[in-house]
Design brief:
With 336 residues, this protein is α/β, with parallel strands linked by helices. The chain folds into two domains: 133 residues, NAD(P)-binding Rossmann-like Domain (Rossmann fold), CATH 3.40.50; 182 residues, 3-Layer(aba) Sandwich (Rossmann fold), CATH 3.40.50.720. Helices cover 35% and strands 14% of the residues. The protein contains 14 helices and twelve strands. A seven-stranded parallel sheet has the order 8-7-6-9-10-11-12, sandwiched between helices. A five-stranded parallel sheet has the order 2-1-3-4-5, sandwiched between helices. Helix 1 packs parallel to helix 13 and helix 5 crosses helix 7. It is globular and about 70 Å long. It binds 2-keto-D-gluconic acid. The site of 2-keto-D-gluconic acid has 9 residues, from loops.
Amino acid sequence: MGTIDMNHPQRVWVSRPLFPEVVAKLAEHFEVLAESEDQRRSPEQLRAKLAEVDGALLGLADRVDAAVLAGNRRLKAIANLGVGYNNLDIDALNAAGIVATNTPDVLTESVADYAWALLLAAARRVSAAERWLRAGHWQGMRFDDWLSVDVHGKALGILGMGRIGQAVARRAAGFGMAVSYHNRRPLPAELEQACRARYVDKPTLLRESDHLVLVLPFTPENRHAIGAPELAAMKPTAVLVNIARGGIVDDAALAAALREGRLGAAGLDVFEGEPAVHADLLKLDNVVLSPHIASATADTRRAMASLAADNLIAALGRGPRAGRPPTPINPAVLAK
Ligand code: 8YV
């Protein structure tokens, strides 16, 4: 990381509309260029913006790689608004000596709540029933209509057992569910106990889960971690929930499985190529769809924005934690 000249006013760019109080906090330390509209930018536009600033607060739609950083001598820090950072090429940032930060922890509980919202809504057909009611189809009560599957007492599977996966698991106790998980590594025994979760291999998880929640980070290895073969291994009545990242699930294969009755239902907050949603998913009634809002409570989004700002302030050598951003992704850069 280049040395910081405390006499030179530093400039930061906020690429997405953000809470005014968070922009104001940044303005105590920096000249702030804050966007008022949520725009998709081409790599060339992003490259031009990043060349003019010392730091940037970016969203997941801002993809930063070696090409975007080429020739940039000024940028020293990127604060990503999210715990996931698959939009950032960390090797390219390391090579350029740029520190990157994310927003873990502050969103864990809200995202876990939302996994349950999608699981319950998909299993109990909440969205489809509401659409039907609003369309004026409710003429009387049929005892054998709108049957769905239970959540309580069933087998819950969790693929990816980081902080959010564990928070999803902890909630399962209230539903009397048996929880299994698969992860790169099993959890330490005390964490497993706290989550009341059992480590299994991925084929077992797919085969045994009545409901499966995906909480994996999106890495090249995890692309289509749930594709046609994995869907074929699941129970035909199973409910699949994706609150992690689009691309972890093969959306076309998922739509086919849901359409053909090879999977019971799905709850999806993230999509391959979002904000576009696969046309086949939009035609189905047994899938609950939402626009990437798992962390979107007012408290949590404020906490995420505030943490991102604190990270940027500290990474650029200002404020009480100067040089020690709270949640760096590539802290080795700071040591240089
Ligand atoms: C946010 C997320 O919706 O943290 C993440 O990785 O995907 C979500 O919390 C997103 O970061 C909004 O910018």
